[in-house]
């Protein structure tokens, strides 16, 4: 997953001082961003007023798009540092290649999890031939300081645990929900779950009051704690909740994202998460000169060039505007 913005804005994020220890209902609207040759995404994090939810630092929602006569997703080789990427699909397939030699087709409700550690590069593309529709989410998880230099690795988990209730099927993507724990590797207390609700369902999910949460609506008509959330938008919920009321007017799909508020101050620019401007500058230089991030083999095209750094100093600050 890449930020393909040719003029990326530095995003200081992290720190607990701006996280209210109480429930809130803050509706986040997306920003539309082109991704590759023919895909447009709705970017929910970082947002104008909300940069993180727990360790979740980047959330894009795309589709459903009809790509029958289109190339679909075409994201050239690009670098990552200091984060994990999460690929999650409702429709279609994405072919993942990386500098470790991984080659994996990711299908709906399968977890593609790439841990960058200090350096990795990868590409993502719709296979040829590919399914008619493409619909999913791409997310980043920031790595805490003690884990951000772990050895880079890629995981693919096709069999994930579920939490069920009448009218609700929740797939645990990362972390723990209720008594179910994903096999995906995590480095901080968090949860990611895919929620499938039948029309007419009114239910609730158990939550950890020490976590902050958000719900990304992906399809259908959904009400979260009494607030209608339309597909492509996200409701930030704050902390202090032990349960979350959900109501589906029609069949609906969503993602629950949560985690312990991230204590560290971070600096996120382009596809890098670091702590200082010097780290970001060094990562950009290493990618430009072809060192450290390795090489992705098999992608039909050139790798993605790094954009220019902004002329002003990059400063890590808090998690809100």
Automatic annotation (TrEMBL):
Q: Where is this region: Disordered?
A: 300-321
User: What Pfam families has UniProt attached to this entry?
Assistant: Pirin (PF02678), Pirin_C (PF05726)
Span of domain Pirin N-terminal:
41-141
Specify the domain of life of the species encoding this protein.
Answer: Bacteria
UniProt-listed Gene3D superfamilies: Jelly Rolls
All copies of the Pirin C-terminal domain together span 193-292
PANTHER family per the record? Answer: PIRIN, PIRIN-RELATED
Q: Which family does it belong to?
A: Belongs to the pirin family.
What protein does this entry describe? Pirin family protein
Tell me which species this is from. Streptomyces evansiae
């Amino acid at each position: 997953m890449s930020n393909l913005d040719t003029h990326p804005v530095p995003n200081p994020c992290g720190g607990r001082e701006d996280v209210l220890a109480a429930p809130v209902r803050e509706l986040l609207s997306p920003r539309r961003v082109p991704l590759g040759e023919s895909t447009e995404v709705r970017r929910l994090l970082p947002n104008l007023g909300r940069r993180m939810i727990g360790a979740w630092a980047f959330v894009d929602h795309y589709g459903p798009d009809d790509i029958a006569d289109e190339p679909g997703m075409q994201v050239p080789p690009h670098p990552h540092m200091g984060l994990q990427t999460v690929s999650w699909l409702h429709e279609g397939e994405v072919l993942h290649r990386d500098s470790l030699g991984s080659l994996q087709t990711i299908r709906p409700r399968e977890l593609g999890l790439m841990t960058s550690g200090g350096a990795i590069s990868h590409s993502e593309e719709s296979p040829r031939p590919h399914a008619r529709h493409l619909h999913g989410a791409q997310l980043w998880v920031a790595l805490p300081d003690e884990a951000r230099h772990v050895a880079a690795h890629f995981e693919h988990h096709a069999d994930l645990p579920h939490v069920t209730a009448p009218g609700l099927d929740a797939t645990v993507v990362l972390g723990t929900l209720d008594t179910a724990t994903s096999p995906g590797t995590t480095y901080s207390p968090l949860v990611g779950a895919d929620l499938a609700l039948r029309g007419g369902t009114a239910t609730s999910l158990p939550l950890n009051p020490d976590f902050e949460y958000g719900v990304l609506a992906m399809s259908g008509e959904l009400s979260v704690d009494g607030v209608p959330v339309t597909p492509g938008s996200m409701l930030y919920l704050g902390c202090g909740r032990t349960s979350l009321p959900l109501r589906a007017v029609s069949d609906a799909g969503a993602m629950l994202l949560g985690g312990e508020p991230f204590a560290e101050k971070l600096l996120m620019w382009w596809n890098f998460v670091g702590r200082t401007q010097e780290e970001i500058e060094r990562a950009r230089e290493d990618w430009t000169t072809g060192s450290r991030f390795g090489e992705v083999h098999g992608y039909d095209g050139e790798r993605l060039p790094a954009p220019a750094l902004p002329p002003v100093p990059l400063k890590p600050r808090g998690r809100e505007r």
